[in-house]
Design brief:
This protein has one domain (2-129, 142-272). The chain is mostly helical and 275 residues long. Helix 4 (63-86) packs antiparallel against helix 5 (99-129) and helix 7 (146-168) packs antiparallel against helix 9 (183-203). The protein has helices at residues 2-21, 26-29, 37-58, 63-86, 99-129, 135-138, 146-168, 170-174, 183-203, 213-233, 242-265, 268-272.
Length: 275
């Protein structure tokens, strides 16, 4: 599982590199053409923050901490595979597209076909290989402060519900997004929102302060990168509309929750073992 997470981190780093650094050249270097550029940098920021989640999960000392990285990644890759198959005609598979784009497309298809299956199989092997632990040791209650748990639950609920709406009814749900989306980009963003929402919901139930570190680091990185994206292409948002204000508010909430959880995970209490 460690090796799989490291490989996945490298792959999402490459995807983020193309989308975040070269958002105007996705027709040459990415599996499908992403427009407008704000969508590309949003997705690139999400991929780069996920790389941090996977590296932190791979470096986790226990399965209890690593699984907070494993399940969101599994959910996201599975949903993205479904989105890819549903919109396969939009991908750079024809001979009239750039060779680099065709290579990126076949690599994309291979990755999203293999990674979810590999994660499921290796997770099953991981769980079966664990030694039984007495219930008195594993039955720890959630240790995050109630206010932080409530904030994470709220963030998780919003991301899961809106992400599911973007996946199921992309055209209707996209009217509440702060910049224009196509069916494909709406569903691609929806897959990310569901994965992030799952991570937030899972994190608030943690019985050990140290196990929330992967999610906390990812949240902080996600907000910083999205802030940079807004500095570059923020004029694409329909300010001061309700969707734009809502987008900024949710980003702020994710940053607060992530920073708070990160501070707690690095506290002396967490290092001593909060369970």
């Amino acid at each position: 599982m460690r090796w799989l997470l490291y490989v996945a981190a490298f792959l999402v780093f490459l995807a983020g590199l193309v989308l975040f650094v070269f958002p105007l050249r996705t027709d040459e270097f990415f599996a499908w053409t992403v427009n407008p550029p704000m969508t590309a940098v949003f997705l690139g920021a999400a991929y780069w923050s996920a790389a941090g989640l996977e590296v932190t999960g791979a470096r986790s000392p226990s399965w209890g901490s690593a699984r907070l990285a494993v399940w969101p990644v599994f959910i996201f890759t599975t949903l993205t595979l479904g989105v890819t198959l549903l919109h396969l005609s939009r991908f750079h598979l024809s001979s009239d597209t750039a060779p680099t784009a065709q290579i990126a497309t076949w690599a994309w298809l291979a990755i999203y076909a293999v990674v979810p299956v590999a994660m499921l199989v290796i997770s099953w092997m991981q769980i079966r290989s664990r030694r039984p632990v007495p219930k008195s040791v594993t039955a720890g209650r959630p240790v995050l402060p109630p206010a932080l748990r409530l904030l994470l639950a709220g963030i998780g609920g919003i991301l899961l519900l809106y992400g599911a709406a973007l996946l199921l009814v992309p055209i209707s749900a996209a009217t509440w997004w702060p910049w224009p989306l196509s069916e494909l980009t709406a569903r691609a963003i929806g897959a990310w929102l569901v994965g992030l929402g799952w991570a937030a919901a899972q994190g608030q139930l943690s019985g050990d302060l140290r196990t929330v570190r992967p999610v906390a680091l990812t949240s902080v990185a996600f907000v910083i990168l999205q802030a940079l994206a807004l500095l570059r292409y923020g004029n694409a948002l329909t300010w001061p509309s309700a969707p734009a204000i809502g987008f900024a508010t949710v980003l702020l909430a994710i940053g607060v929750a992530g920073g708070w959880a990160l501070a707690l995970s690095r506290s002396p209490v967490a290092r001593a073992g909060s369970t």
